[in-house]
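Thread amino acids onto this structure.
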């Protein structure tokens, strides 16, 4: 079992010739409270840092691997990419798995692990604590 470091890469496609869509309409006061930022200065981080995150993930991912073997899921290497939201209080809000594996069980099980994650340190944008997306690749090897 192997876990890769996270990368957050949300933003506009700025390749030459790409057409950038117009900005969305201004948010109402109600919607501003729930805005999910994608242009952040400081990413949300797991409380305790990367080592603490790995210590949280690894036993849970081992349980997923063991369960996958018991379910007779085909041996191989599975790369799962989860997107989730860290709110202003550091809570995890599940969003989606973007990897679209044939073995959906692995994606659902990994999302359940992320959902039970302890509180994170929220992202920051414009010197404010904000709600933001987080992307987490996870590699599971079933032998």
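Threaded sequence (143 positions):
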């Amino acid at each position: 079992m192997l876990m890769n470091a996270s990368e957050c890469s949300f933003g506009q496609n700025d390749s030459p010739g790409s057409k950038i869509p117009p900005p969305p309409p201004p948010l109402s006061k109600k919607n501003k409270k729930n805005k999910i930022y994608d242009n952040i200065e400081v990413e949300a981080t797991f409380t305790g840092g990367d080592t603490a995150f790995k210590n949280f993930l690894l036993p849970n991912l081992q349980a997923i691997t063991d369960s996958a073997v018991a379910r007779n899921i085909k041996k191989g290497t599975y790369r799962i990419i989860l997107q989730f939201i860290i709110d202003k209080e550091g809570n995890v809000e599940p969003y989606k798995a973007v990897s679209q594996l044939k073995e959906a069980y692995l994606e659902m099980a990994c999302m359940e692990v992320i959902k039970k994650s302890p509180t994170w340190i929220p992202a920051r944008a414009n010197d404010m604590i904000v709600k933001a997306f987080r992307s987490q690749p996870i590699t599971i090897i079933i032998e």
